Amino acid sequence: MTTQTTTPESPSTPNPGTPEGLVPIPPAIGRALATGGGALTIVSAFLAWTWTSAFPGDLTVYGYPGGLQVLVLIGGVLTTLFGLASYGVKGLGWLVPAGATSALRLAALGTFATAWYTILAITFQLGGIVNLEPGGYIVAIATLGALLGALALPFERPEPDTADPEDTPRERLVLDARNNIAVIKAAFASGTPTPARKLPAYAEILIIVAVLGLALTVFTYGIGTEYDELFLGFLLTTGFGFAAVAKAGLVSRISAITAKHRNVTLLGAFLAAAAFPFTQSDDQYATIGVYILIFATVALGLNIVVGLAGLLDLGYVAFLGVGAYTAAMVSGSPSSPFDIHLPFWLSALLGAAVAMIFGVLIGAPTLRLRGDYLAIVTLGFGEIFRIGVLNMDGTSGPDITNGSNGISSIPNLNILGFDFGQAHSFGGFTIARFANYFLLMLLITLIVVIVFRRSSDSRIGRAWIAIREDETAALAMGINGFRVKLIAFALGAALAGLAGTVQAHVTYTVTPEQYQFAHVVPPNSAFLLAAVVLGGMGTISGPLVGAALLYLIPAKLQFLGDYQLLAFGLTLVLLMRFRPEGLIPNRRRQLEFHEDAEAPTVLSKTGV
Amino acid sequence: MTTETTAPNTAATGQAVLDARGVTMRFGGLTAVRNVDLTVNSGEIVGLIGPNGAGKTTFFNCLTGLYIPTEGEVRYKGTVLPPKSFKVTAAGVARTFQNIRLFANMTVLENVLVGRHTRTKEGLWSALLRGPGFKKAEKASEERAMELLEFIGLAHKRDHLARNLPYGEQRKLEIARALASEPGLLLLDEPTAGMNPQETRATEELVFAIRDQGIAVLVIEHDMRFIFNLCDRVAVLVQGEKLVEGDSATVQGDERVVAAYLGEPFEGAPGTDEITEVSAAETHADTTKDAAPGKETDR
C-alpha cells in the first residue's frame, strides 16, 4: 500500500469541474439572452443606424440593410442559429456536432465586435454619439446582451494550479494569470464531435454544392468590398464566423464529406471559381482574381516542395520568373532579343520545361544539404536569378533579358482566334481581358491541383512524406533520397514555370523586380512561403485560401501604408502561436492533435 | 533458464547470406569496430551481443550502408554490398532501428507501403497519368502490405497514425515495414528494448515466424534470455572486437564473456552461497521487480 497524499481543498476557489459561466448570470437566462440578442440583432440590422449617408455604405434606410449592416445581420443569424441549436431544436443538431456553446460564444463575440466596430466608427468619423439613430443603439444593446448571455453559459472549468504558500507575490500573479488563461481557453474549447448520421450521397453532394456556393459568395463579397471599414468588418465577421463554425465541429464534418467525394468537390470548386468573373460587372475585380490565382497556383506548387517533401525553398519565386521570362521571350514582344512568336501551348510547355531544367540545375548541387542549409542556399539562388537577369542587359553581360527594363509590351494571347485582350460576351455576360486570363489561369490551377493530388497519393508521394518525416529511416527503407527530392524540386519548378507563362501575358511586362525574396506585393518567395504555412502545409485548399488572404488583405488595407508589413508579421506570429497547423490543417496533422481519439478517424490520403 | 528453447535446430547450415570479412570502422583516431568477421547463413538466426559501447550498432550501420567500413568488405549472397543504405535495402538487407524510427505522421498502412518502395517501380509519370498499370501496382502493394499487417497482428489499426500506437506495436510495425522490402536478411537492432516479458515472448515468436519464411535474421539484443532462446549462433563483440562466436552454451560458458559483462572477480567477492542467500531474500521482498533488463530507451 503506497501512501496517498490527499489534495487540500481550498475553500476559496470554486470547485473544479463545476460548470459555471464567465459572467455571473443564471445559465437559463444567459441562453435566452444570447438567443434573443441574436434575434434582436437580426431585426436591428433592418433599422437605420445613422441619419446621414456620410458614413460609407448608407446605413440610413429602414427595411434594407446595407454595407456593414449585412455583416452584422449574418453574425446575428449565426448567433441565433447556434443559440437555438444549444436549446436542442430539432434539425439544428446536425450543424453542431461538437456542441453549440463554444460556437455560440464565438458567434456572439464576432457579432459584437462587428457591430460595435461599426457604431464606434460612425461615432468617431461623424463626430459624436448624436449621429446614431435608434437602430444603432438597439444593435449595440442587442449584441452586448447576446455576448453577455453567451459568456454566462456554463462550461467545464479546468482544475486551477494551487498556489504554493511560499510563493512571492510576483509568482502568485503569474500563477493567477496562467489560471485565468486556462479558464478562458476552456470557455472556447469544443467538445468531442458526435459521429454524423449517414446521409445519402445526393444529400452530401448537395451540401458540397451549398458550401462551395457559400465560399464563392464570401470570396466575391470580400473582393468587392469598396471601403476599408467594410473590409475590416468583413474580416471580423468571417474570422469569428469561421472560428465559430469550426468550434461547432461543422468544418471537420464537411471536410469529411468533401474527402469522400473528392472528384465532385474538385469539379464543383472549379465551376464555382469559373463562375466568379460572371458575377462581376467590372473587370477591376477580375484583375484581383487573376493575380490571386497566379499567386495561389505558385503557392500550391511550392506546397509540393515544402509541404510534401519538406524541403524549405526560399527562392521559389525564381522559377515563376524563369517561366515568365521564357514565355515573354518567345511571345513576339518587340523588346525580346528573339524574334519568335510561338503559340501559347508551346510557350507554356517551353516555360515549364525551362523552369524544370533550372530546378534540376539548382537542385542537383543543393539537395545534398538538409534543413537550414538548404534554405539558405535556395535563398541565395533566388537572388542569383534576379541579379543575373538584371545584368544580362548588353552592358554588364550578354543582351538577353533587357536588364532592369525587362521585357515589355508582351502581346495578348490569341488562342484559336480567341483574343484575350478583347472583351467578349457570352449570353448577356461580358467577359473582359482580365476575366479571360482568369479563366485560362484557372485551367492552369486545375492542372496543378490534379498534379498535386495524384502525385501525393502515390508511391512517389509517400516517399516524399517519408523523407520529410525521417530521412535516415526513409533511406534505410530503400528510398533514393536525392533522386526523390530532385523530382519534387523539379516538379515544383515546372509548375511555377507554367504559372509564369500566363503571368507574363497578364502583366504585359516582366522585370527582375517582380521576383524578389521579399516585397510588399505578392507573389514573392516570402509571401509564397507564408501562404503555404498560413493556409496549411500539405493540403490543396490551404495554400489557395492562404494566398487569397495574403493578396486581399494588403490590397484592401491600403490605409495601413508603411505599417502593412509590420501588421503582416504580427499576424503571422500570432497565427503560428495559436494555430500552428495553419488555417486548413492537413487531416494528418489534425489526427496528430487528437491523439486520444477513441475511434480511428479514417485518414484520406491527401489533404482536401 | 526457466523457459525452454523452442528453436528447432533445422536448416542451420545453408549457404552464407551475409558474409562480413575484416570489417573495421574508424572515426578519426577511434576504432569503433576492429577486424570483425561474421557470417549469417540462410535459415539462421544469429545474435550479436556485447556490453554498451562495444560497437554493435556501428557494425550494423556498416552492414547496412549507413557507414562505409574503413576496411573490409560485406557481401550479401556473394556480391559486395553497395555503400548507400537505399541500395543495400534494394539488394535485400532490411533493418530496424534501436530507437524506433517510424514515419510518425503516416498511417500504419502507409508506413508498410513505404517499405514496398524498392519492390515497386511506378514513377512520377505513372502517378500523374494513372494508367491501369499504376492501379494494379497500387492494389498489389496494398494487398501485400495488408498481408504483412495481418502477420504482425496490426491489420485492424491500418488507418491509425504510427505515432499513436503503443510502444510494443510500434516495434512490430517497424519489423513489418522492414519485411515489406522483401529482404533475404533482416537486421534487428534491440527489438525487445523496453518490452515486458510477455511482449518479449511475442517478439520471439515473431522472429521465429520470420525465420520460417526463409529470411535469415541477425539480431542485437541485451536480453540474454531472449538471445539464448532465439539464436542458433551468438557472436560477442567487446570493444570493437569479436571475442567469441558459437552456440548458446559455448558463449554462456565462456569466462571472457562473463568478465566482459561483469568485470573480473575481485578480492573478497561474495561467494555463491552468499549470492543465493541475497537473491532469495530479494525475491521474497519484491516479487514485482521489473523483469525487463533492457537498455533504457532513449526516445
From TrEMBL, chain A:
- CDD domains linked to this entry: TM_PBP1_LivM_like
Where in or outside the cell is it found? Cell membrane
Name a GO CC annotation attached to this entry.
plasma membrane
Q: Which PANTHER family match?
A: HIGH-AFFINITY BRANCHED-CHAIN AMINO ACID TRANSPORT PROTEIN BRAE, HIGH-AFFINITY BRANCHED-CHAIN AMINO ACID TRANSPORT SYSTEM PERMEASE
| One Pfam short name | BPD_transp_2
Q: What is the lineage of its organism?
A: Bacteria, Bacillati, Actinomycetota, Actinomycetes, Kitasatosporales
Chain positions covered by the region annotation Disordered: 1-21
Q: Which organism is it from?
A: Streptomyces lacrimifluminis
Protein name from the UniProt record: Branched-chain amino acid ABC transporter permease
Can you provide one Gene Ontology molecular function annotated for this UniProt record?
Answer: branched-chain amino acid transmembrane transporter activity
UniProtKB/TrEMBL annotation, chain B:
Which InterPro entries does the record match to this protein?
A: AAA+_ATPase, ABC_AA/LPS_Transport, ABC_transporter-like_ATP-bd, BCA_ABC_TP_C, P-loop_NTPase
Signal peptide from the UniProt entry: none
Give residue spans, biased composition: Basic and acidic residues: 283-299
Domain of life, per lineage: Bacteria
Q: Identify the residues that the record assigns to the ABC transporter domain, covering every copy.
A: 18-264
Stored SUPFAM superfamilies = P-loop containing nucleoside triphosphate hydrolases (SSF52540)
Q: Where is this region: Disordered?
A: 265-299
Q: Which Pfam families match?
A: ABC_tran, BCA_ABC_TP_C
Keywords attached to this Swiss-Prot or TrEMBL record, sorted alphabetically, are: ATP-binding, Nucleotide-binding, Transport
The molecular function GO annotations come to:
ATP binding; ATP hydrolysis activity; L-isoleucine transmembrane transporter activity; L-phenylalanine transmembrane transporter activity; L-valine transmembrane transporter activity
Q: Would you tell me the Gene Ontology cellular component terms?
A: plasma membrane
What biological-process GO terms show up in the record? D-alanine transmembrane transport; L-alanine transport; L-isoleucine import across plasma membrane; L-valine import across plasma membrane
Protein name (record) = ABC transporter ATP-binding protein
Q: Which organism is it from?
A: Streptomyces lacrimifluminis
Which lineage is the organism of this entry classified under, starting from the top rank?
A: Bacteria, Bacillati, Actinomycetota, Actinomycetes, Kitasatosporales
